[in-house]
Specification:
The protein starts with a helix and ends in a 7-residue tail after the last helix. It is an alpha+beta fold. The radius of gyration is 40 Å and the shape is elongated. The mean pLDDT is 87. It comes from Pseudodesulfovibrio nedwellii.
Length: 397
């Protein structure tokens, strides 16, 4: 078979290109330290790598959620510890106020101290992690609590359901008494109120058919058909105290985040389940134990020198303290759950990273050997091609 000069040149060029391509491929692998640099290198391998990278990114997202939730829960745990300390101090104060060894003036001073504990716990209940409220459920952008109005009922002549709404503002506790019996919404009824603990009284009349009474700068609307009796000043009859109350303005559902494929955890807490307070949508206090309402009632009873009622508040404070401790334990349990999950995710991610490495990373030792071989082959092709190119018919004469 006759081999033409053009065939020699063509075959030589193909051999040089093939050898050079092998060298270039191995040089790229050496520079990137990866054996798969483009989909065409290994279509099946690149598909596995893409799946593993996607899974690794999902693990990274879960671990980020774990970190965020841990930070929030850790701060909430510290906040609840401070609340517990305040409650213990409030219980000690209530215990002193229930011993009947203090004058009315001293009890009023205790009431001021009790207000400081209430203010402190209110501030703690509005703790934020950055711009997110920790005790407002999933309503992250708002405070969990705001101060509004509430009532303390010294006897059973009224109940919370008799109050439809309370609006306006007060500077101090307002003592309200009805002066005659009747049915609100039907009868004309005289009443009186005092803003200085009974030293002076202001009289007024609720018109027949009306359900709202004015007590200075505040208004109280009763439910139609509420019966009242005349107060005699000795604890009998219809009377109550209008005072400030903590209204829960957060959500009834906690903010939940995914910390693994099948596991969610609440990173915030529904404050009403821990601190109580008043539900602004119904104007009704949350079920007992209700920390904020107990503190507010205790302040009123200290202001009015009702030591027996202060003693009753002490028992309620103990229950509220246990409830806060339970809430703190719940936060701690969530922290532990996240910690264990985060450790598991770390191990899984380590395995995933190793799998990606085995799939795409080059063997450095083997790569060096192959590169040396490719360079040797390329140089051999160049030498042989050069020798062939220099041959002519004269070499055979």
């Amino acid at each position: 078979m006759r081999i033409s000069t053009s065939q020699i040149f063509s075959q030589s060029l193909n051999q040089m290109n093939t050898a050079l391509n092998d060298v270039a491929e191995l040089n790229m692998m050496e520079s990137t330290q990866k054996k798969i640099n483009r989909p065409s290198d290994d279509p099946a391998g690149i598909a596995n790598i893409m799946n593993l990278n996607a899974y690794d990114q999902s693990l990274s997202g879960y671990m980020d959620n774990c970190g965020t939730a841990t930070d929030s829960l850790d701060l909430a745990d510290q906040a609840l510890m401070q609340v517990s300390e305040n409650i213990i101090a409030a219980m000690e104060l209530a215990e002193q106020g229930s011993t009947e060894t203090y004058t009315d003036e001293q009890l009023q001073m205790m009431a001021l101290e009790m207000e400081s504990y209430l203010d402190s716990i209110l501030a703690i209940s509005n703790t934020q992690m950055g711009a997110d409220s920790l005790f407002a459920g999933d309503d992250l952008g708002n405070n969990a609590y705001e101060m509004g109005l509430g009532v303390t009922l010294p006897n059973d002549s009224l109940n919370d359901a008799n109050f439809a709404s309370m609006t306006g503002e007060i500077d101090s506790t307002v003592h309200v008494q009805f002066s005659e019996p009747g049915v609100i919404g039907t009868d004309e009824i005289d009443y009186q109120y005092s803003t200085d603990n009974g030293q002076t009284w202001t009289t007024a009349t609720l018109a027949a058919g009306d359900t709202t009474i004015d007590v200075g700068t505040a208004q109280i609307e009763f439910t139609t058909g509420t019966p009242v009796t005349a107060a005699d000043g000795n604890g009998n009859g219809t009377e109550f105290y209008l005072r400030e109350a903590a209204h829960y303005t957060g959500s009834d559902t906690a903010m939940s985040v995914a910390i693994s494929e099948n596991t969610n955890v609440d990173m915030t807490t529904v404050g009403s389940t821990v601190f109580g307070g008043v539900d602004p949508t119904t104007n009704m206090p949350y079920t007992e134990p209700n920390l904020f309402e107990t503190l507010s009632d205790c302040i009123v009873y200290m202001e009015t020198g009702n030591q027996d009622a202060v003693a009753a508040c002490l028992d309620d404070l103990r229950d509220a303290h246990e409830n806060v401790e339970t809430g703190s334990a719940n936060v701690g349990a969530r922290e532990n759950k996240i910690s264990y999950t985060e450790q598991s995710l770390g191990l899984i991610r380590e395995v995933t990273t190793n799998s990606i490495s085995r799939e795409e990373d080059a063997n450095a030792t083997q790569l060096i050997v192959e590169l040396e071989q490719a360079n040797y082959v390329y140089e051999a092709v160049l030498r042989s091609t050069a020798d062939i190119m220099k041959m002519s018919i004269l070499n055979y004469i």
